[in-house]
Automatic annotation (TrEMBL):
InterPro entries for the chain: SAM-dependent_MTases_sf
Keyword Cell inner membrane tagged: no
Region (Disordered): 1-20
Origin: domain of life: Bacteria
Keywords, comma-separated and alphabetical: Polyamine biosynthesis
UniProt protein name: Spermidine synthase
GO biological process: polyamine biosynthetic process
Coiled coil feature spans: none
Cross-referenced SUPFAM superfamilies: S-adenosyl-L-methionine-dependent methyltransferases
Organism: Streptacidiphilus pinicola
Length: 235
């Protein structure tokens, strides 16, 4: 890992600067700096940057708002990314527990320590006694956990139709939805982030959940399509 504490001055032409790259079980993960922003590239896919964060925050706030009696709620966030969703959960008094599941050690490292480049984007999340980061693949975690979550807030890909690795496809399939339903507590809410509408995924949600809300969040990119948050609950 390169020394993050040096925070080199960005190139005047805004060329991205590679700060770190690691090769792990799910391909290469890289952290780049472009001007004042950081970018995460995973397995050759641009995952996200630190320039906005509204839809990643809404993933959490909308799920909590949809819960009947959200106080004390156990919220699962999958995955950590740059930390916007964790920041949103931590600044809200309603969650009683916040479990963040992240499979990339590199991402966790970029949040850890005094000069960690991504830590500021997680707000108060890293010092919050309610929050815990679990280093695991989300599907493995869902298969093995005995916890039942009030809110499952998932943002591990660019969406159901644009996954970072093939192994993530199953999360959005009937098998993945079975697992998510099993892990969702009574009265719980499933929230799934996507960079675009996914009609096939929405149809799968509608076939098994009584209430579905599809929330669009406009993006700042010229001609960009809105981000989408799918909120689902049984009643
Ligand atoms: C788009 S980012 C998350 C954005 C996050 N909502 C935020 O506010 O920054 C996706 C994250 O999910 C992680 N991830 C991808 N697949 C995963 C999986 N199967 N299990 C756990 N984490 C995963 C990636 O390493 C990355 O950190």
């Amino acid at each position: 890992m390169l020394p993050m504490s040096t925070h080199p001055i960005p190139a005047p032409d805004d060329t991205p600067e590679l700060l770190d790259r690691r090769v792990g079980p799910y391909g290469e993960v890289a952290l780049r700096r472009r001007g004042p922003h950081f970018e995460v590239i995973a397995n050759g896919t641009f995952l996200m940057d630190t320039s906005d964060g509204r839809s990643e925050r809404l993933l959490i706030s909308a799920a909590l708002d949809a819960l009947d009696g959200a106080r004390g709620a156990h919220v699962l966030i999958g995955g950590l990314g740059v930390g916007f969703s964790l920041a949103e959960a931590a600044q809200d008094r309603r969650p009683g527990r916040i479990t963040v599941v992240e499979r990339e050690r590199a991402i966790i490292d970029w949040h850890t320590g005094a000069d960690a480049p991504l830590a500021p984007f997680a707000g108060q999340g890293h010092g919050d006694p309610r929050a815990e980061i679990v280093h695991a693949d989300l599907m493995d975690h869902l298969r093995t956990t005995e916890d039942r979550y009030d809110a499952l807030c998932l943002d591990i890909d660019n969406g159901p139709d644009w996954t970072v690795t093939d192994s993530n496809d199953s999360l959005y399939s009937e098998t993945g939805l079975d697992l998510l339903e099993r892990t969702l507590g009574d009265g719980g809410v499933l929230a799934v982030w996507s960079a675009a509408h996914s009609p096939a995924f929405e149809a799968r949600l509608r076939a098994r959940f009584a209430r579905i809300e599809v929330i669009e969040v406009p993006v700042h990119v010229e001609r960009g399509v809105p981000d989408v948050v799918y909120l689902s609950s049984r009643g």
